[in-house]
């Protein structure tokens, strides 16, 4: 069974030549939306995804604008509004050491180097210089863990565990 990963959501059309406005959900828009790449459109009422090939990509304001081969007018793409753009797991590329896909980190149990369980990563924020992992603590509160070498000592996506060395005040 193929696993699928969201790379964006089609929120509207753009102009009359078949472009769609996408809110991107990928860390690699230049790679995912490269001319010739295959993407898959998942609409709510369809049982099978629609395979499309990227014809063009450009950025406009906070949106990625895409057009697809064979979809040359607004009438061709109007039906895609609200649909998700996805790629199969087989299209996920290799990352450099110390880099992880969000789906590998979300759900991991965070433990201090002393063995104290903090909780599980529930989401990842990308505010700027480094990612911040939002950890739901056992008491229901949240801890914000910066993904920096001084704090995150070891990540094991297979075992779904992360070992940290909390900075002073981090877990208060």
Automatic annotation (TrEMBL):
Q: Where is the RimM N-terminal domain?
A: 7-91
* Segments forming domain PRC-barrel: 97-171
An example Pfam family from this entry, by short name, is RimM
Superkingdom per UniProt: Bacteria
The UniProt keywords, alphabetically, are: Chaperone, Cytoplasm, Ribosome biogenesis, rRNA processing
Any GO CC annotation of this UniProt entry? cytoplasm
What is the protein's major site of localization? cytoplasm
Q: Where found in the cell?
A: Cytoplasm
Q: Which HAMAP family match?
A: Ribosome_mat_RimM
The Swiss-Prot or TrEMBL note on domains reads: The PRC barrel domain binds ribosomal protein uS19.
Q: What is this protein called?
A: Ribosome maturation factor RimM
The record's gene field reads rimM
């Amino acid at each position: 069974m193929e696993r699928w990963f969201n790379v964006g959501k089609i929120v509207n059309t753009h102009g009359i030549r078949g472009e769609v406005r996408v809110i991107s959900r990928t860390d690699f828009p230049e790679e995912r939306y490269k001319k010739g790449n295959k993407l898959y459109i998942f609409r709510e009422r369809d049982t099978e995804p629609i395979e499309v090939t990227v014809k063009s990509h450009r950025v406009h304001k906070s949106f990625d604008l895409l057009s697809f081969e064979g979809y040359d007018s607004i009438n061709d793409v109007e039906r895609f509004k609200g649909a998700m753009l996805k790629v199969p797991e087989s299209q996920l590329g290799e990352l450099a050491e110390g880099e992880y896909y969000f789906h590998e980190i979300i759900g991991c149990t965070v433990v201090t180097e002393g063995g104290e369980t903090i909780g599980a990563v529930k989401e990842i924020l990308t505010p700027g210089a480094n990612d911040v992992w939002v950890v739901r603590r056992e008491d229901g509160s949240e801890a914000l863990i910066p993904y920096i070498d001084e704090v995150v000592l070891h990540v094991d996506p297979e075992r779904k565990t992360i070992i940290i060395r909390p900075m002073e005040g981090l877990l208060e």
